[in-house]
Design goal:
It is a single chain. The protein is mostly helical. Among the domains are: about 100 residues, no CATH class; about 130 residues, no CATH class; about 60 residues, no CATH class; about 110 residues, no CATH class. β3 and β4 form a beta hairpin. The chain is built from 19 helices and 4 strands.
Length: about 600
């Protein structure tokens, strides 16, 4: 107890009063001094024991208070460290010991309680976030059961700071985004499965249930499974459906090709084809654009297969007729392209082989089909040369027309359409002058084609180069014949002039008529008899006629086509009447601008 304090003064006063009263009692009793000393020492010892006991109790109380303050400060430090609350500081200055322990305890205790409440709230936040994280993780991993997140807070996870909470929230947002993407992907896969099941005519519910039962459910209580297994199952289902779609589409295309072939062979009507128009329209679309329901169902394929089977049976009954028809088509193509058809499938031979049973009609038809394809391919490679041949033949036709035109005695007389004939004649003369160049160019192109294909270019069975070379030779001979004709005409004119100078006058009209009679096929000789002379065919001048591929092929193959007679021997123009020679001169010598003049 502190000296000088009011309580100590009162205690001292009381003790002195009592001591005086005790001494007075001892005096009255008559105690000796030794007994008095002994009793006083015993009294002092008892007082010391009381003081010591009180001091010990006070020291124990102080220790407990100090321990409580230290525990609270430690708990406060732990809470601050756990919560990461940097704004909360120790309220006491560790260096300042002026505050009592009770005051320190009174200050620390509310802070600790406040941080405890904040910790409980923070734990709830962590528990809620971890619960959501575990739930989404469970959905992604494919299981829906998860433990309480509070029990998952291990010692290493006692960090309840806002930084840690932010990390969990960021992780949760990442998982939520992944869940949204997975859900969107699952829905896309489900829609794709639904679309393909509709096209293929399959049960969507059964197909999707085989992947995961939750995908078929429509109730809100049943969550859609978004696990890796579900996504993989959907991807495998889509791959399987795409493969099946591709297989069915190819099968339908094959059936449609057979149908088209059979329709063409059997001359199927448009009404019969219209029933299967849906199939033909589907096969023309790309695989990705086929979305029509049941477009590739097994029933559609089965119906088309049955139609193919029906037409195939009908085709078998009419196979001979079909073989003949396709052979005729082959011959028509060969005739148009001037290619010799394969004699092995000729109509008479085909009939004999089918009737004898030596050859399957289907095999024979396939052989003819292959020949048609081969001929069409060859015709395509011959197109350029064939176009040049047509130009050449057209030029030859113009040359023939020009010859007939030059033989017409009335071509300059006034009449309707005369100016058109004159214009055509001018164009024909220009065209005729191009014939040698056309022929030479055609020979070069043909030889180049033969070198490229390693075979001869045949035109109705004859080599085109041979025809062209013969044409050039004949044309050259014809030109020489024309030149010789002009020379003989000049000689004839000279002889006529000499005869007129001898007789002194021109022949009388009667004599002229006799010469006209002779012009009909006979000529008077020196003794008055008539000598046969060559006649023109169709009013044309006797000459060498070059043979075009058409006339050449007619001669080679025995085709009955109209041909002009050719006269290869020299003519005796001395014996030809003057009137006929005048007509010849009008053809080859009198026409101005004629390309045949030398």
């Amino acid at each position: 107890m502190l000296a000088g304090s009011p309580s100590s003064v009162r205690t001292a006063t009381t003790c002195n009063t009592l001591l005086k009263e005790l001494q007075q009692i001892w005096m009255d009793i008559g105690e000796n001094d030794a007994e008095k000393d002994r009793l006083l020492m015993e009294l002092e010892r008892e007082c010391l024991e009381v003081y010591r006991r009180k001091v010990d109790e006070a020291a124990a109380t102080k220790a407990r208070l100090h321990q409580s303050v230290a525990a609270k400060e430690a708990e406060l430090a732990t809470l601050i460290a756990s919560l990461g609350d940097l704004n909360t500081h120790f309220p006491l200055n560790m260096e300042n010991k002026s505050s009592s322990l009770k005051a320190q305890l009174a200050i620390v205790t509310p802070l600790v309680e406040d941080l405890k409440v904040k910790k409980e709230e923070r734990i709830k936040q962590f528990a809620d976030i971890k619960s959501q994280i575990e739930k989404i993780n469970g959905e992604i991993l494919g299981y829906s059961q998860f433990v309480d997140s509070v029990g998952l807070l291990t010692l290493e996870e006692q960090d309840l700071s806002l930084r840690k909470l932010g990390e969990y929230q960021s992780h949760l947002r990442t998982l939520q985004k992944e869940k949204s993407e997975r859900l969107h992907k699952v829905l896309e896969h489900v829609n794709e499965v639904h679309s393909m099941c509709s096209v293929l005519g399959l049960d969507f519910g059964k197909t999707i249930s085989d992947v995961h039962p939750s995908l078929e459910g429509t109730s809100l209580e049943q969550a859609t499974n978004i696990s890796d297994g579900t996504l993989e199952g959907l991807a495998n289902a889509i791959l399987k459906l795409k493969t099946e779609k591709r297989v069915r589409l190819q099968k339908l295309k094959d059936i449609a090709a057979l149908l088209s072939e059979l329709w063409q062979i059997m001359d199927t009507t448009r009404e019969e084809k219209s029933y299967f128009s849906r199939i033909t329209s589907v096969t023309r679309l790309p695989e990705s654009e086929i979305v029509e329901p049941t477009a590739l169902s097994l029933e559609i394929i089965q119906q088309a297969s049955q139609e193919v089977e029906r037409l195939s049976k009908l085709k078998a009954g009419r196979m001979k007729e079909l073989v003949m028809k396709r052979r005729s088509e082959l011959e028509d193509i060969c005739f148009k392209t001037h290619i010799e058809p394969d004699p092995s499938t000729a109509i008479d031979k085909s009939n004999a082989m089918i009737d004898s049973g030596l050859l399957d009609p289907s095999e024979l038809l396939s052989n003819i089909e292959a020949q048609i394809i081969k001929v069409k391919a060859e015709a395509l490679s011959r197109k350029e040369i064939m176009d040049r041949i047509e130009r050449w033949l057209a030029a030859c036709e113009e040359e023939n027309w020009l010859e007939d035109y030059n033989l017409d005695q009335n071509r300059y007389s006034a009449g309707r359409g005369v100016h058109l004939s004159l214009k055509r004649a001018e164009r024909a003369r220009i065209t005729v002058t191009k014939i040698p160049a056309i022929v030479d160019n055609l020979i070069c192109k043909t030889i180049s084609w033969e070198d490229d294909k390693k075979k001869s270019f045949l035109y109705d069975g004859a080599r085109l180069v041979t025809i062209l070379e013969e044409y050039k030779l004949t044309r050259m001979q014809k030109e020489e014949e024309k030149k010789r004709f002009r020379d003989q005409k000049k000689l004839q004119d000279l002889l006529l002039k000499e005869r007129e100078s001898i007789y002194g006058s021109k022949p009388s009209p009667r004599r002229s008529s006799s010469f006209r009679m002779a012009g009909n096929g006979y000529c008077a000789n020196g003794n008055g008899s008539m000598t046969p002379t060559p006649r023109r065919s169709s009013g044309r001048t006797p000459s060498m006629e070059p043979m075009t591929p058409r006339s050449y092929s007619s001669r080679q193959n025995g085709y009955s086509k109209e041909m002009r007679r050719l006269t290869t021997g020299p003519l005796n123009f001395v014996t030809i009447p003057k009137e006929d020679t005048i007509s010849f001169s009008s053809v080859y010598g009198s026409e101005p601008g004629s390309p045949l003049q030398s």
